[in-house]
TrEMBL record:
UniProt-recorded name of the protein: Circadian clock-controlled protein daywake-like isoform X2
One Gene Ontology cellular component annotation held by this UniProt entry: extracellular space
Matches recorded under PANTHER family: PROTEIN TAKEOUT-LIKE PROTEIN
Gene transcribed to yield this protein: LOC113207841
Pfam family, one: JHBP
Length: 243
């Protein structure tokens, strides 16, 4: 099987590609949603170690160089930057339900993840519950019982007559069971202040997450739009979705 890799020029390179990670679905399958669900769940072990031939890096752990979030309204008004982020547990996802609208290239995925741990560096400025905040340092967070709905929106493009799916956007919504945070602030080095900040974060985790959810979802969606396009722009539609 061949996968064509678009390069932005008229001359695209064609590379041999193992298709063991692809379970093709048929447009005419009356149980197309179930097939797409199997396809995404089947991908899980391959995503753990990465798929080099289509430039998909390992997702266990998942490495993200930079994430930006900004919330300008409500009791939590902050601008946050996260660097060198490493997430553990994302590969333990389970796709529980799928709604595929192929004519409009829209796929809605309902998924659960038991637990994700995240660490990295952060910088936050703004106001939290009327208190001014300026903090920078290392962070750790753990989220459990994650339930999410991701809506993938795309459109078809052609490269040298071959059809690919290009992801335009990913809409994301999520709910968390429990959340825990720990930060090590390098600006406010007082141990007492650090302990107070960690206690404040954990005691008000639900409020903070609810306020930051739209900004967090938008930031994560931007990252995964690029992540998925690495794959979809290298695998012709006819390979994973037959007539």
């Amino acid at each position: 099987m061949l996968v064509l890799s678009p390069s932005g020029s008229r001359h695209n390179a064609v590379h041999p590609c193992s298709a063991e990670y692809i379970l093709p679905c048929s447009r005419s399958d009356p149980k197309l949603n179930d097939c797409v669900k199997r396809l995404f769940n089947h991908l899980r072990p391959y995503l753990i170690r990465g798929i080099p031939e289509i430039d998909v890096p390992p997702v266990e752990p998942l490495s993200i160089n930079k994430l930006y979030m900004e919330n300008g309204h409500g009791p939590v008004r902050v601008r946050a930057a996260f660097n060198n982020v490493t997430a553990f547990g994302a590969s333990n996802y389970s796709i529980n339900n799928v709604k595929a609208d192929v004519p409009h290239w829209k796929i809605e995925l309902h998924l659960t993840i038991p637990r994700i741990e995240v660490k990295g560096q952060y910088e936050v400025t703004g106001n939290v519950l009327l208190f001014p905040v300026r903090s920078k340092g290392d962070f750790w967070a753990a989220f459990s019982d994650i339930k999410s709905i991701a809506t993938i929106n795309g459109h078809e493009i052609f490269q040298d007559g071959i059809k690919f799916l290009k992801i335009q956007s990913i809409g994301a919504d999520f709910n968390l069971g429990k959340s825990r945070f720990k930060i090590k602030d390098v600006i406010n080095r007082s141990n007492l202040l650090g302990e107070a900040m960690n206690r404040f974060l954990n005691e008000n985790a639900d409020v903070i997450i609810d306020e930051m959810k739209p900004a967090a979802a938008a930031s994560i969606s931007r990252h995964f739009t690029g992540f998925l396009n690495k794959a979809f722009l290298k695998i012709p539609v006819d390979i994973w979705l037959t007539e």
